TrEMBL record:
It comes from Micromonospora musae. Residues 14-82 form the HTH gntR-type domain. It comes from the Bacteria. InterPro entries: GntR_C, TF_FadR/GntR_C, Tscrpt_reg_HTH_GntR, WH-like_DNA-bd_sf, WH_DNA-bd_sf. PANTHER family: REGULATORY PROTEIN GNTR HTH, TRANSCRIPTIONAL REGULATOR, GNTR FAMILY. Keywords: DNA-binding, Transcription, Transcription regulation. The keyword DNA-binding applies. Signal peptide: none annotated. Coiled coil: none annotated. The keyword Transcription applies. This is FadR family transcriptional regulator.
Amino acid sequence: MPRSANSPPPPPRGQRIRETIAQLRERILAGEWPVGSRIPTEPQLVAALGVGRNTVREAVRALQHAGVLECRQGSGTYVVSTDELAPVVARQLTGDRVTEVIEVRRAFEVEAARLAALRRTPEDLVALDDALAAREAAWHGGRADEFVEADVVLHTAVIAAAHNRLLAELYASFGAALRSSLVETMGGALTAEQYIDHARMVEAIRAGDPERAAREAGAYLEAAPRA
């Protein structure tokens, strides 16, 4: 249908692409297309978003470059991350930068433990207890990948108990890449020297003792770069 004389002019192409990227991002963050799921086809996106094929194509390509989407030949386009910073961080977590990784973990996790001791709620304590129990069970199960996942979940629960949204968002970017890095450095089997107890840190958070919680968090990072 032709545009009438009184209709406003269409937005510039660059603006349409930016707006389409924002719409796609919003739907991903809202959980409409979870990580691991396939997004609608190009014609379906055109119909749903009310823009042209080229605009959709450019928006999808931009999110692919950002590491949010991944095109799989013959299968479709999938959501691989909700966080554009995570792939950037992942590229930095190489084997020759272990010391830097530990320094960044210390910056996040020591302060998070201190804040958690000051701000934890009863719900946070339940989450910490559950995560600690799951970590212990994963250790006794003997599978490195399961233990690393449980370990990250526990540290994420500490971050959540700090109740600092920006800290949580930044740690999410770091933590997503940290999983694969830890699995690689630990190897396929768990050994006794790799185990580091986290119960004392959780107890310090429960006791509301910020200095002891920070000290315990710093101690496990000093003890071993793999836990």
